[in-house]
Amino acid sequence: MTTADGGTEPGFWRRVWDALRPLDPLRSVNAALGALVIGSVVIATGLVWVAIRSSTEVRLITVFSLIASLLITQFVGQRLTSPLGQMTAVTRAMAHGDYTARLATRRRDEFGELAQTFNRMAADLQSVDRHRKELVANVSHELRTPIAALRAVLENVVDGVSEADPDTMRTALRQTERLGRLVEQLLDLSRIDSGVVPLRLRRFSVEPYLAGVLKESHFGSGAHGAAGAPEAAADPAGSPGPRGRGDVRLLLDVWPPELVVRADAERLHQVMANLIDNAVKHSPPGGRVTVRARSGTEPDGLEVEVLDEGPGIPAAERHRVFERFNRGRETGVPGGQGADGGGTGLGLAIARWAVDLHGGRIGVAESPRGCRIRLTLPG
């Protein structure tokens, strides 16, 4: 079929080729079996004709015909059923938890299509298994932070380091409430890839919000108080906390003071808590961690930087620090405490996920000293 300008209609020969598939032994099992029968008949007929022409005994010709037919049948049958043996082996491996094995997909017939479909199923099962393991690790990582902070507050009160005043009890109550919310919200991680995790956006003031996050980090890590939160700075909990980092100062710099952002407060809390936790972890003795917030380019937007005075992130690692389970093999790489320092390597991965949900950006910015993580929320 030709078009008005004399050319061949696009897809015409493709439709012709598809229409011939039932007759193509390479693309159809039925056609291959039909070719096997025809081949066997042709061979038998040819041998009978040779016997008649050469006066050979018919019994001898019959034996040769049977042998030739069996050999051809064995060869074709082996080729047709070989994927079934591979599929059995791969299925057994999957039954033992190995989802990495795949079938060869070079064939063009129905078995080739079956192999491709089987490989897609195996990839989906591997992805589901990986997400299940990541979900368990994410839940453990996220629950550990408020539990550690709550334990630190209660230990300080029991040991007499802090008074059980209303301010301290409110901090403990906030950690308990956050723990309850995390139990529900961390289940949303199983739906990250589907893109249906809800955001509860609202407008709130940045300075008191970040001051609260820093104060919770102060209780959880034993770090000293933050600028902009005099109560935290005056709190006697400057003794080392669970990580023994009571020598690290937390500073807050917000401009303008009335800065407002529109975001999901709980998701943003996940981001800031993980960034501050990493910064404190990699700070030198007597170091400072500064949280700097500025207005974004759009209304209700926000730009936040978290700076520490640690060894920084090697240039070769900067593109990997937000990957899941990247704990870092060199000193100063966030996401964990290095090869020997523990941690699950999920903190920055969770931070990037939460920022992506807001349509924002997060990355490692250039810094003359230490590490600087910058995130931008569009508002």
Account of the protein in words:
By secondary structure, the chain is an alpha+beta fold. The protein is built from nine helices and seven strands. The chain has helices at residues 12-19, 29-54, 58-95, 110-158, 166-185, 206-221, 230-234, 265-281, 347-357, and strands at 201-205, 249-255, 260-264, 288-295, 302-307, 361-365, 372-377. The strands form two sheets. It has a five-stranded mixed beta sheet. Strands 1-3 form a two-stranded antiparallel sheet. Strand 4 (288-295) and strand 5 form a beta hairpin. Helix 3 (58-95) runs parallel beside helix 4 (110-158), helix 6 (206-221) crosses helix 8 and helix 8 runs antiparallel to helix 9. It is elongated and about 115 Å long. The protein starts with 11 loop residues before the first helix and ends with a strand.
Quick gist of this model?
By secondary structure, the chain is of the alpha+beta class. It has nine helices and seven strands, in the order αααααβααββαββαββ.
